[in-house]
Amino acid sequence: MELIYPEFYDRFAAFLRSLEGRRVVVISHARPDGDCIGSQVALTRVLRALNIDVICANPDPVPRRIQFAVGDTPLVNFDGLPEGDLTAIYVDCADQGRAGEKLKARFPAPFANIDHHLSNIGFAQHNFIDVGSAATAEILAGLFLDHHLPIDAQAAQSLYAGIATDTGQFRFNSTSRRTFLIVAELMARGAQPAAAAAELYERETAGKLDLLQRFLASLSYECAGRVCIGTLPNGIYAATGTSPEDVEGLVDYARSIEGVEIGVLIEEQGTAIKASLRSKDPVYRVDRIAAAFNGGGHACAAGLNLRDVTMADFRSRLVAAIDTQISAVDTLKKSTL
Amino acid sequence: MELIYPEFYDRFAAFLRSLEGRRVVVISHARPDGDCIGSQVALTRVLRALNIDVICANPDPVPRRIQFAVGDTPLVNFDGLPEGDLTAIYVDCADQGRAGEKLKARFPAPFANIDHHLSNIGFAQHNFIDVGSAATAEILAGLFLDHHLPIDAQAAQSLYAGIATDTGQFRFNSTSRRTFLIVAELMARGAQPAAAAAELYERETAGKLDLLQRFLASLSYECAGRVCIGTLPNGIYAATGTSPEDVEGLVDYARSIEGVEIGVLIEEQGTAIKASLRSKDPVYRVDRIAAAFNGGGHACAAGLNLRDVTMADFRSRLVAAIDTQISAVDTLKKSTL
């Protein structure tokens, strides 16, 4: 088989050799997702199989739906970290701050940084960053395969979990031919897509569906149907027995409608507002719309937080900002015809 | 590369030779889905590239979301079939009746039958049936690759559409290592998963989301939370601007809840009732529950139609039948411990 990441081959081999005799901690970002946990767990397991002393650490608990990606892998929070000298490897973190200030303070000079985020500036001694990969788990799987490292069934399933979630079940643009080839190799080592799907998508709570129902009932349209906005009012978590974790994915329903270019979710949080924006086409640069409210993100996915503002006031200001952006894009499109 | 379907290799070569000089029609089932249309289109395009005179025919129109899988491929309904002698190839049809009585009457002796359904009894002269394949499109893609047939970009995308939809985006148990390897090959020939996903999942109507919202609001639980039932009352299509096609996928929400073993959708149709049952585990044999109401299907997915019954009356009879089945399974599980 051809090398999957030839550009990393020699450097990764040297990196592996440099880990010998060290005590290692594999760190990833707060509010962990499938790629974060899957990458931490898989790297930890593979390094353990190489007789390296390693655990993983995450500032936040693992969401219920992703727990299958952990198995019996040692995973601690900050307080569970052992004393003494530890070598820190960051995975799936665009910057060190994403794993929280406590971990950043304890590990001011990270040893390694493996990631696929565009904004990663390479903050460690050894950096393996490939923005063309659909997931950090895709990079790790490719490196493990290139170096014929032992991937056990749990590691294979964890890597699969990372790839499946970060590609939206192979729906996002980042899904490449390499993605499918790597998954085929992971299946040969014990990954089970159907079992992963049962954990990821068939363990909803009744409250989550209630939350979805209320969000759908709130949908309204702006900008001649090109924008769809759904809202979550104060008290909705208590009313549905849900938590902020359950908001994940809701905004995609707003965007999924034919003719809608930008989907929006606005959440009341006391006297503050949190909003998520998703566009179908990067031309709408929702990160720029969010930036007008001190938010940020990517061209197709951005978010913002504002204090001391009412839902009604914020909603009208946001619609005005989106309308301006859509008009600018329309004008640009016309002028380039 | 190793052969994907070695058991079919010689027979498929002979079948291709036997098509020379014939006028062919590729037929698939009524109420077409992605695998049906994807398979018809891809086989038609590949045979055309071999200079065979071929069109596809389907008794029903292609749903809006699947139209991208057709492209410029000639596809007609029964009335659009040319006169004269035609050789009929059925794809993705468990039996000939699934494509409707008109086509069955015109083609009483089908020439070929390519399918992955367990219940297919091989009704044609040439039968290529593999129940271990996730989709008929998977079988066709494998046969085309094995025989180095020319798969153009539209055929690759059509085959991808069939595989992606029939595996529920690679979530069903049928998804195998072969599935991923074949998709990688299709991507090398022009398949674009993200573009397919935009057509399949980002072209919802506002009415469809309204229908989903009302279905979610109707969810209720039976059998100590192990059964979740949602209902669609008379008049809901008119109220939401939707059609029966939009019901697809709703029942999966009822099943997706943690602790729910069987999800149910009951639809009022005047004085008749249509119901769909989905279980997480085949042990519940929802086909047997459906059979008690003259319905049928598979162990995890079944349906039924009943005339002259009210929603309330049917609902209580169905719950009783499900309760009996669940109790029987519980007893069986206990006795085998």
Automatic annotation (TrEMBL), chains A, B:
Superkingdom: Bacteria
Molecular function as annotated in GO: nucleic acid binding
Pfam annotation, one family: DHHA1
Domain DHHA1: 236-326
Segments forming domain DDH: 23-163
Protein name: Bifunctional oligoribonuclease/PAP phosphatase NrnA
Natural source organism: Rariglobus hedericola
